[in-house]
Amino acid sequence: MTFLFGPLAGGLITGLNFGRLGRKGVVGVWTVVGAIIFIFEAAPFTLNVSDGALRPYFVSINVAAGLGFMLAQKVAFDHWKASNWRPTMAGGKYRPNRTGLLFMVGLACLAVEIGLILLLILSTGK
């Protein structure tokens, strides 16, 4: 999600996932973390940086943030899975649900991020 929709979406979805895993008080914290990463990602728009230099920067920030969010959830998910999930068939694999909700959250955050970047571009006169 972070790679497609940006770090704000990744942080919010990480917080929602922690809430689904029983740690409801961290949604705001992870949303703030995603917003801070987004600020670092949007910072080059205030500088005179060429488009060719920005593309690898954005990709690397989104990939690193996505991996960080994924690894942050891994321990909590493994603990939740060990104590709550029981396969219906022997050798059955875990299948996540509510993907549509996460996709819509990602789209909403992408719209916010695009709006903020456009405002930043317009305010700096680039």
Q: Could you describe the 3D structure shown?
A:
The chain has 126 residues and is mainly α. It has one domain. 75% of the residues lie in helices and 0% in strands. It contains five helices and no strands. It has helices spanning 2-5, 7-20, 27-42, 51-84, 99-124. Helix 2 (7-20) packs antiparallel against helix 3 (27-42), helix 2 (7-20) runs parallel beside helix 4 and helix 2 (7-20) packs antiparallel against helix 5 (99-124). The longest helix has 34 residues, at 51-84. The radius of gyration is 17 Å and the shape is elongated. It starts with a helix and ends with a helix. The mean pLDDT is 76.
Compile the SSE list and pairings:
Elements: H1 2-5, H2 7-20, H3 27-42, H4 51-84, H5 99-124
Helix pairs in contact: 2-3, 2-4, 2-5
In quaternary terms, these chains amount to single chain
Mean pLDDT: 76
Number of helices: 5
Share of helix, binned: over 70%
Number of domains: 1
